[in-house]
Write a structure and sequence with these properties.
489 residues, alpha/beta, 5-stranded parallel beta sheet, 18 strands, 45% helix, elongated
Length: 489
């Protein structure tokens, strides 16, 4: 398919010359002599580019260009003018012209400008496609979970987004997302961007732990040609790339003190200076950072600046660990099972009751990321539609040490499974040992569910699951509010 260009020129000889030259160079040319005819052709032809004379009957080329841009904001137009004054050129560029060319027209130059214009249009289309693809499924709806912890986090995000929509100057506060590795901090950052006031702008992310500290400054702020040994050309940094949108700094706790000072200046003044540059540039962006580290403890240790810490955490969003999300574990597990199942052509997969019980009991040290990756292996190797406990390659040895951990095999084993016995003797002994351990721990803590769960290295939901499964109740002679009641906190 050829490249299509609309030529608007009222001089018949000039129109013919331009059309003939461009046709020889591979363009499909549609020519006309008036602005009114051009407007009709533009809506039906949808050309890749437009070349228009500035002097047309009843309408100037710049006025025509403005109408083209109203119909298609991405239209690429080149204005031909016999007026070599700077004022005409400025007016054309302000109206949205891709470029302008002086008469008498150099055909080779015009062809080159058209090639560049079409190339720029394709690049913009690609960027638009990737932005739309990046935004799809990236809002709050992508945060799967109905547990109280997730509902609380979503409510906080909604409150922040609603407040931001009322900000008059558009200068949005910095957000610090805190949570363990694998909990989905990036998803939270994306949801705040794509459901927020800056959704139309770019979302630029960088993992501060993945780039050596001596290169991170250049990645963030850019550099001028010759600023250092390998700076062979000017480079725009990610801060400038995020102008008008959001800069997401993942693993913010990994940056060194010297870079922390420059980041603080960016947050306070919203200016950036490339390495080797003299002038500062104003940028309009919001910063979301994320960490799994205790930044307050790092401030006490002197490894993180206190002023930067307080500037980053104007808004704090805490992402709950998977083990603290109760039945969200099964909700996510079924979601990943279906997702991976569709990918590998196994759409009817389901968990056995024992497998679901084991998913609920597991500590999930790697959180949602661990679950997603583990279930991809499970789906890939599944011999039938029912997923059993033997197919769940869990790693209980990574959980905090507890007596309960001995009930499971370690990560060096092919899988994690509870031993089976035809006679049932071993299983009965194991169940009795578990019951005794749970009861003794409850008695030790005065039947406090939260304290008992911590002693056993379990979440509160996992502890309650065992209490209900074993049918345990507080004895009447135990201190408390009466028979069968448990102290939650």
């Amino acid at each position: 398919m050829g490249k299509t260009v609309l030529v608007v020129e009222d001089d018949a000889i000039q129109q013919a010359n331009i059309s003939a030259y461009l046709t020889r160079n591979g363009w499909e040319v549609q020519a006309c002599g008036s602005a009114e005819e051009a407007l009709g052709l533009f809506d039906t032809l949808h050309p890749d580019a437009v070349v228009t004379d500035q002097r047309l009957p009843r309408m100037t080329g710049i006025e025509l260009l403005t109408k083209f841009r109203e119909s298609d904001p991405m239209a690429k137009c080149i204005v031909m003018t016999g007026d070599d004054s700077a004022q005409t050129a400025v007016q054309a560029m302000k109206a949205g012209a891709y470029d302008y060319i002086l008469k008498p027209v150099s055909m080779a130059e015009l062809n080159l400008l058209l090639e560049r214009a079409v190339g720029a249009a394709k690049m913009e289309q690609v960027l638009q496609f990737h932005q739309q693809r990046q935004a799809s499924g990236a809002g709050l709806s992508s945060l799967i979970g109905e547990s109280p912890a997730m509902q609380e986090m979503k409510a906080t995000i909604r409150q922040v987004l609603e407040a931001e929509r009322r900000v008059a100057d558009g200068d949005l506060p910095a957000v610090l997302v805190h949570g363990e590795t694998g909990t989905g901090k990036e998803l939270v950052a994306r949801s705040m961007h794509f459901d927020g006031a800056r959704a139309a702008g770019p979302f630029v992310e960088i993992n501060c732990a993945s780039i050596p500290s001596h290169l991170l400054e250049s990645e963030l702020f850019g550099h001028e040609k010759g600023a250092f040994t390998d700076a062979k050309e000017r480079r725009t940094g990610l801060v400038e790339a995020a102008d008008g949108g959001t800069l997401f700094l993942d693993e913010i706790g990994e940056i060194d003190l010297s870079l922390q000072a420059k980041l603080l200046k960016l947050l306070e003044e919203k200016t950036v200076r490339r390495i080797g540059a003299v002038k500062e540039r104003k940028v309009n962006l919001r910063i979301i950072s994320a960490t799994n580290r205790d930044l307050a403890a790092m401030v006490k240790q002197g490894t993180f600046r206190s002023d930067l810490y307080f500037r980053l955490r104007i808004i704090t969003v805490n992402v709950p660990a998977l083990r603290d999300r109760g039945t969200d574990i099964l909700l996510l597990a079924r979601h990943f099972l279906q997702t991976h199942g569709r990918r590998y052509g196994k759409p009817n997969l389901r968990f056995s009751p024992d497998a679901e019980a084991q998913l609920l009991e597991y500590f999930w040290p790697g959180n949602v990321r661990e679950m997603r990756n583990m279930l991809e292996q499970t789906v890939l190797l599944a011999p039938n539609d029912v997923i059993s406990t033997a197919q769940l390659a869990l790693c209980p040895s990574l959980a905090p040490e507890s007596k309960f951990e001995r009930d499971f095999k370690g990560c060096n084993q092919p899988c994690m499974s509870v031993p089976k016995s035809n006679g049932g003797t071993d299983m009965q002994d194991l169940a009795e040992m578990e019951r005794t351990l749970v009861v003794k721990t409850l008695e030790r803590t005065g039947w406090n569910v939260t304290k008992s769960a911590k002693l056993l290295g379990l979440s509160r939901d996992m502890m309650r699951y065992r209490i209900e499964k074993m049918g345990l109740q507080r004895p009447v002679d135990q201190p408390g509010s009466g028979f069968g009641t448990l102290q939650e906190y």
